Amino acid sequence: MSRDLRMDGVLRPPEITFTFAGQPISARQGETIAMALWVAGQKALRNSSKDGAPRGVLCNMGICYECLVRIEGAPVRACMVLATEGLNVEPGGKS
Length: 95
Ligand code: FES
Known about the structure:
Elements: E1 6-7, E2 10-11, E3 15-20, E4 23-28, H1 33-39, E5 46-47, E6 54-55, E7 68-71, E8 74-77, E9 88-91
C-alpha cells in the first residue's frame, strides 16, 4: 500500500520496503522496525520459550527485549533499529 507524502497536512519522509518473514512491509525512512511492523498489523515478533505465547513490543524503548527479531541471524531489538530499504527481518524465535 502506498501512502502519500503529505497526509493531513504533515509532510512524511520517503517510503521504503523491507521484509518480515518474507513478507514485504512498507515503512517511512526514520521509522523503527517495531513501529513499521506495528503499523502493518504485525504485532507478534517472536514466541516465548516458556509457553510459546506470541511476544511483541512492550516498552518500545529498548529495555524489555520482548521485541527481539533477527537480522542476518543476529538477535536485535526491533524498537531500537531503523527500518532500511531491502532489509530482511526474521521473527526472533523463542527466547
Ligand atoms: S519493546 Fe522493549 S526492548 Fe523493544
